[in-house]
Specification:
By secondary structure, the protein is of the alpha/beta class. The chain is 39% helix and 15% strand. The strands form two sheets. The protein has an eight-stranded parallel β-barrel, surrounded by five helices. A two-stranded antiparallel sheet has the order 1-2. Helix 7 links the parallel strand 9 and strand 10. Helix 1 crosses helix 9, helix 2 runs parallel beside helix 4 and helix 4 packs parallel to helix 5. The longest helix is centred in the middle third of the chain and has 14 residues. It is globular, with a radius of gyration of 19 Å.
């Protein structure tokens, strides 16, 4: 199992998710058996230092090549591959013109991908959504990238409604590149999807539940909890807002989830969050 020169232990990845994929969470997913972790979106002009100790796929969002070569050079040795986001449907993406809102600027897409290819020997992926220009972008991608991620929903759908599986299959028929399928992948359908595509990504099913990778990859590993996330957070500090967000997300499979969330909403400190979870 390879993408370009990157050897992978399995075909099940963690999807890129903003405000979810912090380093402690990615490390738990990796320990649970995840074949490759993706970061949330990063802009080449950002001054924020990225935490990349899991050697993830680093997802880039931009509308031009400003700072791109320098950004890639800075993180070249710390990542497994670089990904270009052409799928984000959010309001911020609309306002700034990135993600799926860049689909109508084919020249810009080609310039960005060409610059990325000239800047690294690492694999490059792109994440796409369904649009009228997706197949035109594939023709460009064939020249520069090593794999394609397809989330076959439109911008209007966001993350709701059924993904268009037939669209994803048509896309696969238009390229010889490996296809990474994303969109409602879960414990029930992942085996079938792996028969139809080269790799799959787990997104929302993994939120607060890194243990899903243990199940899907048959990895022999203990189940991780929010307490394990907090232990990693000591080494890789996160803002309080992020700690509270993860605390909420890890309630997903708890028997008293509703009661935990009600108490966590009121928490104003890490100490209080630990009290709610019974860690103190």
């Amino acid at each position: 199992m390879e993408i370009r020169n990157l050897k992978l232990k399995n075909r099940i990845f963690l999807a890129p998710m903003a405000e979810v994929n912090d380093l402690p969470f990615r490390l738990l997913c990796k320990k649970s058996g995840c074949g490759l972790t993706y970061t949330g979106m990063a802009n080449p002009l950002s001054k924020q230092e990225l935490q990349l100790d899991d050697k993830p796929a680093l997802q880039i969002f931009t509308t031009n090549t400003k700072g791109l070569k320098e950004f890639i050079k800075k993180y070249e040795d710390k990542v497994s591959l670089f990904d270009f986001n052409l799928g984000c449907p959010a309001k911020t993406a609309r306002k700034l013109g990135f993600g799926i809102f860049l689909h109508n600027k084919l020249d810009s897409i080609e310039e960005i991908l060409k610059t990325m290819r000239q800047s690294t020997e690492k694999p490059i992926t792109i994440k796409l959504r369904k649009s009228k220009n997706t197949f035109k972008i594939i023709k460009i991608a064939n020249k520069y990238v090593d794999a394609i991620i397809i989330h076959p929903r439109t911008q209007q759908q966001g993350y709701s409604g059924e993904p268009d599986l037939d669209f994803a299959k048509r896309l696969k028929s238009k390229t010889k590149l490996p296809i990474i399928y994303s969109g409602n992948v879960n414990e029930k359908n992942y085996k079938q999807l792996l028969k139809e595509f080269d790799f799959v990504m787990i997104g929302r099913e993994a939120i607060g539940n890194p243990n899903i990778f243990t199940k899907l990859t048959k990895t022999k590993q203990k189940n991780f909890s929010f307490k394990d996330w907090l232990e990693l957070e000591k080494k890789y500090p996160q803002p309080f807002k992020q700690i509270k967000s993860q605390a909420m997300q890890f309630t997903k499979n708890a028997e008293n989830a509703k009661d935990l969330r009600r108490k966590l909403i009121l928490a104003k400190s890490v100490k209080k969050i630990k009290e709610v979870y019974g860690f103190l």
